[in-house]
């Protein structure tokens, strides 16, 4: 699994609201992991951002949060989760805070990344619920094929067919009873 971003961040604890310095890893699958040291022996806290993240704010957008000592407000990052809680983070500089925010927002979009070995970089491929991703290893490279689901419009067609059938049935019933009324 590929690592998107790592580094030291201050994290505010949820119970006592104290700031702790943690080594953080943001993995390509959307896991944001917090460790005590950069040796990564024991995970202190883990958040799955692909399913739990609602919004990411940084700097002066973070209201109601006081940064740790000797850090300005511009270094704050606030990740709002689906259960209503927040993960408050603080970077060491404003540039680092912005870089973390942009990376967190990329993960939130639910992207699939392809690796280009010639440029040693990852490319983002956006996926939604109507697309299928196939992984096919080729000679030395890995390719992702994004294919549209052929059955995504089936229910629309079925609903229109039922509505058309009902309308035709009502019209034919009227025409069948018409000769009896004139007798």
Automatic annotation (TrEMBL):
<dbReference type="InterPro" id="IPR039680">
    <property type="entry name" value="PLEKHB1/2"/>
</dbReference>
<dbReference type="InterPro" id="IPR001849">
    <property type="entry name" value="PH_domain"/>
</dbReference>
<dbReference type="InterPro" id="IPR011993">
    <property type="entry name" value="PH-like_dom_sf"/>
</dbReference>
<protein>
    <submittedName>
        <fullName>Pleckstrin homology domain containing B1</fullName>
    </submittedName>
</protein>
<dbReference type="GO" id="GO:0045595">
    <property type="term" value="P:regulation of cell differentiation"/>
</dbReference>
<dbReference type="Pfam" id="PF00169">
    <property type="entry name" value="PH"/>
</dbReference>
<dbReference type="GO" id="GO:0016020">
    <property type="term" value="C:membrane"/>
</dbReference>
<keyword id="KW-1133">Transmembrane helix</keyword>
<keyword id="KW-0472">Membrane</keyword>
<feature type="domain" description="PH">
    <location>
        <begin position="2"/>
        <end position="109"/>
    </location>
</feature>
<keyword id="KW-0812">Transmembrane</keyword>
<feature type="transmembrane region" description="Helical">
    <location>
        <begin position="158"/>
        <end position="182"/>
    </location>
</feature>
């Amino acid at each position: 699994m590929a690592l998107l971003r790592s580094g030291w961040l201050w994290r505010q604890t949820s119970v006592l609201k104290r700031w702790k310095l943690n080594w953080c890893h943001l993995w390509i699958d959307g896991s944001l992991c917090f460790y005590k040291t950069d040796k990564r022996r024991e995970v202190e806290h883990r958040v799955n951002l692909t399913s739990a993240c609602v919004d990411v704010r940084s700097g002066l957008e973070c209201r109601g949060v006081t940064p740790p000592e000797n850090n300005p407000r511009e270094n704050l990052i606030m990740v709002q989760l689906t259960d209503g809680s927040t993960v408050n983070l603080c970077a060491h500089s404003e540039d680092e805070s912005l870089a973390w925010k942009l990376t967190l927002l990329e993960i939130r979009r639910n992207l699939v990344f392809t690796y280009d070995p010639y440029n040693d970089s990852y490319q983002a491929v956006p996926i939604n619920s109507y697309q299928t991703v196939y992984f096919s290893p080729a000679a030395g490279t890995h390719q992702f094929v994004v294919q549209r689901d052929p059955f995504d419009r089936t229910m629309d067609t079925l609903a229109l067919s039922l509505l058309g059938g009902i309308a035709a049935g009502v019209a034919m019933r009227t025409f069948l009873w018409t000769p009896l009324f004139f007798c």
